[in-house]
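USER:
Before I trust my own judgement here, I would like a peer's view. Write it directly below this note and I will take it from there.

ASSISTANT:
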Amino acid sequence: MGTAYRIGMGLVGAMTLALAAAGAGAGELRATIGNVKPQQGKLWVALYDGADSYRAERRFAGQILEASATEVTAVFTGLPAGRYGVAVFQDRNGDSALTTNLLGVPGEPYGFSGGATGGAFGPPAFDAFALAVPDGGTVTATVPLTE
């Protein structure tokens, strides 16, 4: 499955998902999304909590944010300790999906935490963009968008 399907289908129908705090030791992940085209649609942000959920296109949490500046930050709180990965696309045409060409190549900006990129035939593996969130800690990530 291609990047478009993995990001787009993992987010279709999603509105902001608020996570309840998982106790005093809950962690936080702050993802700064860069190379945003301001005032051009919305940013669809997916948070995955493991390789299995990523492969199944079953996100742990998601947010839809305004593309208000060249950098926008998504904050996920109340996270249990573990490994998480962030995938983002900028929905510039407002169709709530990552637009792709006939070969599945994205036609809108997209990115993964840490700037991870996939190979010639699809998105990166979960391990390439996963981050460890410690119990009670805060992790920051960068997600540069590319076209």
Observations:
- Residues 11-23 have pLDDT under 50 and may be disordered.
- Helices lie at 3-11, 51-55, 126-129.
